[in-house]
Amino acid sequence: MTTTVNRSGPGGPARLLRAEWTKFRTVRAWVIAMTAGALVIVLLGLSSASGSHASCAGGPTEAVCPAVPVGPGGEAVEDKFYFVHRTLAGNGSITARVTSMTGRIRKPDVTPGVRNVVSGLVPWAKAGVMVKQSTKQGSAYAALMVTGAHGVRMQHNFTHDVAGRPGGVSEDSPRWLRLTRSGDTLTGYESTDGTDWAEVGTARLSGLPATVEIGLFATSPGDLTVTRGDLGGSVSAARFTEATAVFDRVGLEGETSGGAWRDDDIGVTEAPDGSSHHPGRAGESGGTFSVTGVGDIAPSIEGQTIERTLTGVLTGLIVVIVVAVMSVTAEYRRGLIRTTLIAVPRRGRMLVAKALTIGAVTFVAGLAATAITLAFGTRILRANGNHILPVSWLTEVRVVVGTAALLAVAAVLALALGALFRRSVGGVITAIVLIVVPHVLATTSVLPDTAARWLLRLTPAAGFAIQQSIPEYAHVLGHYAPIAGFYPLAPWAGLAVPAGYAALALGLAVVQLRRRDA
User: Which of 348, 416, 445, 489 is the most buried (most CB within 10 A)?
Assistant: First the structure.
């Protein structure tokens, strides 16, 4: 026996969706409100971008800030270090023993006006051997290094990091490092005695030219100090540090340039008078090298992000919540729900059709609003001198589509809450408390970072993680807190949290509808 499902007949999915869409578009107030919500996202985002200006000091006047280096993967990078190097043609290797690594750190001043500089190394201070495409900032590289507190590491092209053996460096416990090149492949080895070598990692630098720079380097990122704000949140500040490494037993294999080693302070900042600000330095005596560097070789997380233009989403979300709740409670308020239920024997389908309709309408409106805001907002920011951290086009698509999906999921959750409460006030307030309030508390200076992170894991506000365009990097010391735009969950995992809330609330609303209106 064959059963045919009439999808366009009474109670069929197609007819239900068409009916709910007709209801929505014929209620002028809902259409106007949804349009207003989209315009709010655009106008507030563009207004915020227009009010953001940046410039750099150029003597007595302001000047355009210099361009930030971009790495081989298209990301903004920090590429500042002191490099003692020679030119290598073709394959070869460099071997060196690191006998000591020391440094200086500027701490908050104890006595006003008196610089408080102490001895020490920040955790990601780095010194070691490197092969780099050229001395141009952002060019491809591979490096094997000792660090302040993370042992031996092999890093390449800024975003890649492989751990070697833990432990530091001292005169009693030196570290041998070796980096070899074979075509596009760089391999790092470490040893405690210069005899027994262990492989740390391998990097493939696609398109590496035949002639590269090979040598010794040192660098040290700023010391990050995080303090509690007046209202409980955190405030970060980076201060000057430097690292000094001593190398001996330096050996080169392969066709290298003869003569003296060349010194380059890669990416050193120049003061208005043309002098170097916190310069590095190097010295050599009897085959022993001392190299001191300031800066970092890593992805940059300092700058404006593309989601900075979407500041109006939270306000637009409130409008979406109100429309979504009213799209279901209006039928209860006007006594029309009985008519709808008589026409639709399977009541769960009716509620699902409403959810799909409000979700689809919200998604389309949100997609248009976020795409327009992101496209024009980033142009305005750049025109005002702001540096925007570059991301791939896939990340941009994820931010735009994901934000629209977040709005749609929030609309479905709000509709389900409206069906549960059957009153507009209860549904709207509950939705705002679940979605908007946690986000506001977590991303302002109201709560400690730990509490803020838990809010953004457990509440529907976790969905805002879909907007994060710059990831956290384990080998970059940064203020990875919600107030700085970093979320505890991955983008799609974060969006799954409000989606789960919406599915649960919709399921409960369907059950309640079947029981109370039976």
Answer: 416
